[in-house]
Amino acid sequence: MVNSTPSAADLPQVHQLAGKILIETESAVLRDAGDGVGLLYFSTKLNTINHGVLDMLERVPDFPEVGLSSLVIASNNPKVFSAGAQIKTFIKYLEEKNYSAFDAFVRRGQRAMTGLATAPIPVVSALGRLALGGGAEILLNSDLVVAAEPRVGFPERTVGIIPGWSGTTHLMARACAHNLSPEQAATQVARTIVTSQPTEKFHEMVVEGILLSRDLEVSEPMLLPTAIREAIRLSEDYVPQSFSLLSVPGREHIAGIIDTVMSDTTPENEDHVLPIVTELANCLSATTGNSLISFNEMLAKEAYAVARLARRPETLQLMRQIVG
Questions:
Q1: Does residue 278 lie in a domain region?
Q2: Which of 15, 30, 111, 283 is the most exposed, having the fewest neighbouring CB atoms within 10 Å of its CB?
Q3: Could you give the number of structural domains in the chain?
Q4: Which domain holds residue 176?
Q5: What's the CA angle centered on 255, arms 281 and 191, to 5 degrees?
Q6: Nearest residue to 140 via CA among 125, 161, 128, 129
Q7: What is the predicted pLDDT for the residue at 269?
Q8: Are 216 and 230 in contact, with CB atoms under 8 Å apart?
Q9: Are residues 189 and 282 in contact, defined by beta-carbon separation less than 8 angstroms?
Q10: What is the chain's mean pLDDT, rounded?
Q11: What average pLDDT score do residues 27-45 get?
């Protein structure tokens, strides 16, 4: 869970700004860290993810063409890895009632995120401090996370939706892998999402499926050197990730999942939370009895749930309140 940290002498000597620039856009910079490692930073405020960042993430499968054999995603902000999707983009589409563009942004984010997992090179996230929403979904799609003082969470509930860039699907896949029953797995995932508060303890993130037991916790000075060392190690005999089938509960369990999750909700939040929990429970269940569905089928259900929630007037209201 928390792995032993090597000494500084064992690690590559790097600086966050070092290395030749391979690709630079308004939203992201890719540098050459040496030994075939690419170092990717976002240039947006709080490293939020907009169309420009997605442009760069979509290019990751092609990075071998520029001589890279592995990738480290990091941050030049010492307090934030990524604050997630750029909410103003969502607001723009919802204010215009351009729901097709909103839905396309969600599906594009899904493709970019899962493209990290299936890329021909390993992707390591150097998680320093805070990762929220889309930032957390980058972690879920990485081959390895190296973390220093991590705080990770899914605040989507506070803006009226659920994690829609593969987060809901990945959390369900990881819960299923923990030998929980389909109903228990769906309930755990719904609770994690509805809580919306960042988790601050490494072992709790592993229990919730946000991180894996193979991920590493290190001190801040060791963060980037360790991530680069691990990227080099993983590149030596790398096989891209594959997605397994998910075991989901039947519709007969939906009411029980909703009741269990809502029992943790304070009365003043019930009207806001119930529609989200209802969509979550439907998303995480099958039409008939307990079933096996593909990862892509779950992604489609996830996107559909986000689309339905986004069309509620309350969602636009909540998003406007967040940006002020």
A1: yes
A2: 15
A3: 1
A4: 8-323
A5: 45
A6: 125
A7: 75
A8: yes
A9: no
A10: 92
A11: 96
Q: What is the pLDDT of residue 181?
A: 94
d(CA 37, CA 22): 11
Q: Would you state the pLDDT for residue 202?
A: 95
> Hey, how many other C-beta atoms are within 10 angstroms of the C-beta on 220?
11
**Coil, strand or helix: which one is 314?**
helix
Q: What is the CATH number of the domain that holds 140?
A: 3.90.226.10
| 9 has pLDDT over 70 | no
Residue 86 domain-assigned (yes or no): yes
Q: What pLDDT shows up at residue 12?
A: 45
Report how far apart, in Å, the C-alpha atoms of 301 and of each of 31, 309, 316 are.
36, 12, 21
Query: Which candidate, 153, 165, 159, 160, places its Cα nearest to that of 191?
Result: 153
Q: Quick one: pLDDT band at residue 18, thresholds 50, 70, 90?
A: low
| pTM over 0.85, yes/no | yes
Contact 126, 135 (CB under 8 A): no
CB 115 within 8 A of CB 142: no
Taking each helix axis from N to C terminus, what angle separates 99-118 and 134-141, rounded to the nearest 10 degrees?
Answer: 30
Both structure tokens of 73: 């995603």
Strand (E) or helix (H) holding 117: helix 99-118
What letter represents residue 61's amino acid?
Answer: P
